[in-house]
């Protein structure tokens, strides 16, 4: 099948429907009606000779062939964007889409250089569109390796092949409990460390077995995907848990949280930049990486 201009329109509509897992979200993004989207999907199916999805009252669902076609569509669309960005780079122009992944709850850390990097980049002449997404560290690494993200900032104690990481800054984490917890009013001098680790704890679902939160706390009874949701659990007064100090600070200042034996139950967490091995995709990616590292006090 040779791609024509109309085919690109059809596959962009198909991509939007898949990303939004149905027609409603795609309608908003594309600013076209449901019947038009349906006609485009039907036209693409006829063009390919494949059934791409099932749609109706039961909802939207990709067929196996549709899932495979979408993987190819993603590669085609990304290739077109890379072509545009690379050609612009030959003219020393920065265009295209820059996809950046971040772990949650980093904006409250005064050491985090991400916001400063955006400011530095935006002082340059460019026509780049940013797409920022949030995910857990393992998923961020996988997306960078697969080319779904250009770069990602997170904590990567376990690294996957095909990636390189560059340290950015250190984040402090301490063990906290909330007002209402039995330990909240107990002086540190009266807290038994051996008894402390037996308290019911709230952790994070992506922590591996060797993480401090799993290694030192013996009774993790709840897990959350994000720090914000973990804080919700700890603020009930029913759990203790390791939380970044910068994320806990507003609640400490409001008298809602306290650190427990911070001299003993504390660990540093390295936040790093994850990039795909090899040359950077285009001028925009390279420039943003340089700005990020400069704001972090490092160099590529």
TrEMBL record:
Signal peptide: none annotated. Keywords: DNA-binding, Transcription, Transcription regulation. InterPro entries: LysR_HTH_N, LysR_subst-bd, WH-like_DNA-bd_sf, WH_DNA-bd_sf. It comes from the Bacteria. Residues 6-63 form the HTH lysR-type domain. GO terms for molecular function: DNA-binding transcription factor activity; transcription cis-regulatory region binding. Belongs to the LysR transcriptional regulatory family. This is LysR family transcriptional regulator. It comes from Rhodovulum sulfidophilum (Rhodobacter sulfidophilus).
């Amino acid at each position: 099948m040779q791609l024509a201009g109309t085919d690109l329109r059809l596959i962009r509509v198909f991509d939007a429907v898949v990303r939004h897992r149905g027609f409603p979200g795609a309608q908003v993004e594309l600013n076209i009606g449901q019947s038009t989207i349906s006609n485009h999907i039907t036209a693409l199916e006829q063009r390919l000779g494949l059934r791409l999805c099932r749609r109706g009252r039961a909802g939207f669902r990709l067929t196996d062939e549709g899932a495979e076609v979408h993987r190819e569509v993603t590669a085609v669309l990304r290739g077109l964007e890379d072509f545009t960005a690379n050609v612009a780079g030959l003219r020393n122009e920065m265009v295209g889409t820059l996809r950046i992944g971040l772990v949650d709850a980093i904006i409250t850390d005064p050491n985090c250089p991400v916001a400063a990097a955006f400011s530095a980049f935006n002082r340059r002449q460019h026509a780049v569109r940013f797409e920022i997404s949030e995910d857990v560290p393992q998923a961020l690494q996988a997306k960078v390796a697969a080319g779904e993200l250009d770069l990602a900032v997170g904590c990567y104690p376990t690294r996957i092949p095909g990636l390189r990481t560059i340290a950015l800054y250190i984040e402090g984490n301490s063990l906290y409990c909330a007002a209402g917890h039995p330990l909240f009013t107990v002086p540190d001098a009266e807290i038994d460390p051996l008894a402390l680790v037996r308290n019911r704890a709230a952790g994070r679902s992506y922590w591996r077995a060797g993480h401090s939160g799993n290694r030192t706390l013996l009774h993790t009874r709840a897990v959350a995907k994000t720090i914000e949701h973990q804080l919700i659990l700890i603020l009930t007064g029913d759990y203790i848990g390791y939380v970044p100090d910068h994320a806990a600070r507003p609640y400490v200042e409001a008298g809602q949280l306290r650190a427990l034996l911070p001299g003993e139950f504390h660990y540093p967490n390295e936040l790093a930049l994850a990039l795909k091995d090899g040359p950077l995709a285009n001028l925009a990616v390279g420039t943003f990486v340089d700005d990020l590292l400069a704001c972090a006090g490092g160099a590529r």
